[in-house]
Amino acid sequence: MFAFSDHQTSVNICNLPAALGLDRQPWYHGEMGRATAESVLRNEGDFLVRISPNTANNFVLSGIANSIARHFLLLDENDQKVRKQQQVFETIVELIEYHRGENVPIISEGSELHLIRPIVKFTASLPRR
């Protein structure tokens, strides 16, 4: 599992309340680098959620906005809550479902990301005998 240290405390990021239900989402890819994420994002509105190997204490929403790959940190670094602009969500799943269901873009750093097409994590199935 992926963990980070905060001086005296070691916390598994996947056990944070904000990560509840994340492992059951097809668009959640676990640990994935930026270059790999960008290689699977092709069209406007493509998106996925990942853990960056370089940002140990956060989840990253990667997607295509205005034909450019964008990467947004999802947890507030002070309290590990899911915040986008003035909204606070209990979980990352809630954030994604709200923005997809209401067709509201995620706005961050001057970019608008519409969550149109989730990029599903590839899982190789074992051949049957």
Characterise this structure.
This protein has 129 residues and is mainly β. The protein has one domain: SHC Adaptor Protein (2-Layer Sandwich), CATH 3.30.505.10. Helices cover 13% and strands 35% of the residues. Strands 3, 4, 5, 6 and 11 form a five-stranded mixed sheet that branches. Strands 1-2 form a two-stranded antiparallel ribbon. A two-stranded antiparallel sheet has the order 7-8. A hairpin with a 2-residue loop joins strand 9 and strand 10. It is globular. The protein starts with a strand and ends in an 11-residue tail after the last strand. 27% of the residues are buried. The N terminus is likely disordered. GO terms for molecular function: receptor tyrosine kinase binding; signaling adaptor activity. Keywords: SH2 domain. This is SH2 domain-containing protein.
Give the end-to-end Cα distance, rounded to a whole number of Å: 31 Å
CATH architecture: 2-Layer Sandwich
Can you tell me the number of structural domains?
1
Mean pLDDT score: 86
Overall 3D geometry? globular
Q: From the 3D structure, determine the CATH topology.
A: SHC Adaptor Protein
Low-confidence stretches: 1-10
The Cα radius of gyration reads 15 Å
Beta fraction of the residues?
A: 25-35%
- Which series of helices and strands comes N to C? EEEHEEEEEHEEE
**In CATH, what is the class?**
Alpha Beta
Total count of helical runs of at least 4 residues: 2
What is the SS-derived class? mainly beta
* Helix content estimate: 10-25%
**Can you say what the CATH homologous superfamily is?**
SH2 domain
How is the main sheet built?
Answer: 5 strands, mixed
How many β strands by DSSP? Answer: 11
